[in-house]
Input
Amino acid sequence: MGSIPQDPRLLNALLTLLQAFRKVFRQQRVYNRMVVLLVGEVLTLARHTVTQILVTLGWVERDWSAWYRFFRKRRFPYGALALALLAQMLEHVSGDVLVVAGDATTTPRTGKRMEGVGWLPDPRTAPFQRGLSYRQRWFHLAWLTPPEGGYSRAIPLLWLAAFTAKAKRQKQPVRSEVQAARIALRWLRMALRALGRGGMTLLMVGDGRYDQVSLWQRLPWGVILLARSARNRRLFFLPEPGMRPNRKYGHPAPTPAQVWRERRGWREVRLQVRGRQRHLQVKVVGPVVRRGAPNRPLFLLVVRGKQRGRKRRPPLPFLVNAVSQGGRWVLPLPLPTLLFWAWQRWEIEVVHRELKSTFGLGEKQSWHPEGAVRTVQWSAWAYAVLVLAGYRAWGLQKGPRPPTRWWHGGRRWSLNTLWRAYRAAWWGGHRFQPVDLERWLSEGDLRWLQAPVEQAALGAARL
Output
């Protein structure tokens, strides 16, 4: 019977990453609880509640109330941890552009009196007859890793509450998705300045929800927004020299639906996306402005796939803010770069699916107003730490080979491969070894994380 190979590089990367977060926690005991919960998130195969994690780790005859008190502001300083996580991510960014993706998502809840719970559309119902359920709404800002072989991966960076006006609230303010996006972008700009990288340019890719006049008007300095637009979006050219001096809008520009019916002016662009060559046809219109935001020049990008026979994918319109260069408005980044990252926006949807289906996002029960928010932020932060450690150990394409004879793995390692590698390293020879938490919490020795792995294979790793 074969066994799943154990990779010491993964645990070495995780331990190095965890030690970088030690200074954020005030007490060693609180830091130890964080490490235990992080390991329990991977090993728990049932619902990811706090009690199920303690059962998995063997803490069944002790008081469990202290583990719920961990999700308080002083014990779990999420803002400081997000800043420390950003500092670790920046070690992998060599250029002057930081690419992020923004999107909103919801988590189901059953308690009507829980913080942030309100009636929201239920994605589990049929699209033609959408139902409602008690849910919490969040805004998620994710970092997109540098491309490798046409691949990228989204890693959660910041998770903000975006509760509605009719939701149950005691401490959280009302925020729309656009307001939460502005707060997240401003936080990211200030965080980069605090880390000594304030001159970096931010590129945020988003879906059609962020093609809003309020966001275009108040876009923070140094931020490039690439958002999908509507096919009937009304746009205007800039005023021409012969028009009135105080005129804000020029002649009406064609709508995206009118642009993709034109036969001339299309440009062919080739991209390597997910290991394959993609042939796209793009038409750039602009600079243009939206009504209500005349001081924000934009470019309209209409993208369509190359026709094969009689079939062609429906064109997609995108809007991106322009930059001034040499007295004229130009694209902020090269066109192939913008199209590549527009394609990679789907990676944030993959994160939402994995967090909800595998990692138990929103399953922890906490009725405290702070705990109802911190437990969700904890799940996203713990997921980010584990995935970032895998990215440091393997990159994007050099993951471990699956233990099956009928499939040798894909070009990019999957998240199931990551969880399997963690469990193989901690479970050892497929035998679960419970941890003596009472002794470890008093001593704080991290060597038990490496116990299943042969010490000779750890190389230079020392604690």
Q: What stands out?
A: Confidence is low (pLDDT under 50) at residues 452-463.
